[in-house]
What does this fold into?
Amino acid sequence: MEVRPIGSQGLAAGAVGFGAMGLTGVYGTAGSDDPAVLINQALDLGVSLIDTAESYGGGENERLVGRAIAGRRDEVVLATKFGLTFRNGVAAADGSPENATRAIDGSLARLDTDHIDLWYLHRVDPDIAIEETVGAMAELVTAGTVRHLGLSEVAPDTLRRAAAVHPIAAVQSEYSLFCREPEIGLSRALDETGASLVAYSPLGRGWLGGNLTRPDDLAEDDFRRFIPQFQGENFGQNAALARRVGEIAEHAGFHPAQMALAWLLGRQPAVTPIPGTTKLRNLAVNVAAAELSLPADIHAALEEAADGVAGERYPSTFMNQLEG
Ligand code: ATR
It folds into this structure.
């Protein structure tokens, strides 16, 4: 698989990464393959960026990733995050230096490693200056437990201020045909600071996989049931857009997920998508996107087909954590 730089300080990873969040059941578990088998298969196929977070599954996601990569640590660009907690369904940021120092030890223990390759602030804490948070994160780079720093869902100026304290290798934001917010202001700041964009939910949390047609396709405990994009009339409107993307894919002879990821891989500046899946067959489709280069007219057709997504991309109790 093509290897792409992440940031300007020597970090690099396979063009398609793997987002592990879904492995601890956030989108339901029906038909899931063994997560360790899945992660090892991803590595076999050339994936190297494996993305988790302290908050996923209350720590269980990091444990699961740690167990899966045991014995293959040097093949992995291991990314995790700190600074976001979920209490009673409400998200809260904590970017205090004390929290950074506390969090790293837990992540290292759960991932069973002595260093994190890419350590993100999961959400910006509005009560702590970003310089203070990044200063504390940078101390862990000096200590050797962290190699590169990242931020998630930040405003362009936050990235600029952070990068003035320490190089920022990556900004992780939601980015897909269904969510094009990073194109508005972030691109320029990425260019100025040398940070790369890592795209989470690159399949629009499943819409672009092409098999969500009815609200009942979502399990009772699926987090997406709480997201406005997947509720009421929005569901029907967004399913219609996904169908249009699917038709373009079918006409061109590709899987819609492969096309949606190839669209991202063709963006400039370069983007590293981290699709999540619980299934080996979907993993193979997603990885195959790295081999697909789409002509400009298909890019344009996909963008037109996906235009007009209805509803917010998070529940209201999560929206105020996004700087965007
Ligand atoms: P996130 O980053 O939040 O995990 P995403 O990568 O945009 O979101 O989408 C993840 C969703 O897309 C999951 O529900 C996943 O379902 P499976 O676990 O059943 O695979 C779905 N998905 C991932 N790859 C897919 C593919 N190739 N075809 C269809 N659905 C896919």
Observations:
- The domain at 3-204+264-292 is CATH 3.20.20.100 (TIM Barrel).
- The longest helix spans residues 232-252.
